[in-house]
Write a structure and sequence with these properties.
The protein is mostly helical and 272 residues long. It has nine helices and two strands. It has a two-stranded antiparallel sheet. Strand 1 and strand 2 form a beta hairpin. The termini are far apart.
């Protein structure tokens, strides 16, 4: 399984990186649209929607993302634009509602609430990925936090995992995996400080530590939240799209919780 996961990443990552670096932003947005639709379709399955309702929900999620993106440019004004409010809503959800949802193990059946949760999980993430694309190395820096954390947690958990992080929600995750992810992110951050000149850094050394720590914590919440959603419907994976990874949601669960926060932090430090 690990080899299959690695091979899938080895095929997809170069294609993703090439599109990120060389596509114009409008084409990058178009290239990510099928992913938004598929993720929304998979979420509809977790929400127990019927096939027609899943398709309608996926169309609505995709269309709303486009409407927010093209509804107005991200420019410096005295007013908060809807896109920024989408990031704020996402941060509030993942920092407060999602942890409460997990701790209380809410088994929500309401279709509208589940659909709203899916919208909050997917649309702000897609917006962040599209909006940050003109700053590809900044976006890659943020994405690397999640990729490194996921890989380190998987390896450390497999090798040393003894103490379960959330056995009822996701039995495979351990505190040793979290520790491995934290160590790997720490090494990554120190490497960035050593390699990037101080006048070219996106954030100060102190604020960067806080942001990377927050992104790591949010990625764990996002991962556990999707695991809990799957557990409610008795699924191991959200789909079968990606060999070794399951569905698309299984691959982007950490991004749903982190990318809006990263985009919001980026725009706030830029004075937008």
């Amino acid at each position: 399984m690990f080899l299959t996961r690695v091979l899938t990443v080895a095929v997809m990552l170069p294609l993703f990186a090439a599109a990120l670096l060389f596509f114009p932003q409008w084409l990058w947005a178009v290239a990510l649209l099928p992913g938004l639709y598929i993720a929304a379709w998979e979420w509809g399955g977790l929400a127990r929607y019927s096939a027609p309702l899943r398709a309608a929900y996926a169309v609505l999620v995709t269309a709303s993302g486009l409407a927010l993106f093209y509804g107005g440019p991200m420019v410096s004004t005295g007013k908060a634009v809807p896109e920024l409010w989408a990031y704020v809503l996402s941060c509030l959800f993942w920092a407060t509602i999602a942890p409460l949802w997990l701790v209380a193990r809410w088994k929500i059946q309401n279709s509208l609430l589940l659909g709203l949760a899916g919208w909050i999980a997917l649309v702000p993430m897609w917006l962040a990925l599209v909006r940050l694309q003109p700053h590809p190395y900044v976006l890659l820096m943020f994405l690397a936090v999640i990729w490194i954390a996921d890989t380190a947690a998987y390896i450390a958990g497999k090798k040393w995992g003894r103490h379960k992080l959330a056995p009822v929600i996701s039995p495979g995750k351990s505190w040793e995996g979290v520790a491995g992810a934290a160590v790997a992110i720490g090494v990554y951050y120190v490497a960035l400080l050593m390699l990037v000149p101080s006048d070219e850094r996106v954030f100060s050394a102190v604020s960067g530590i806080a942001l990377f720590a927050a992104l790591l914590a949010l990625s764990i919440v996002g991962d556990l939240f999707e695991s809990w959603m799957k557990r409610q419907v008795g699924l191991k994976d959200s789909g079968q799209l990606l060999p070794g990874h399951g569905g698309l949601l299984d691959r982007i669960d950490g991004l749903t919780a982190t990318m809006p926060a990263a985009a919001l932090a980026w725009y706030l430090q830029a004075g937008i």
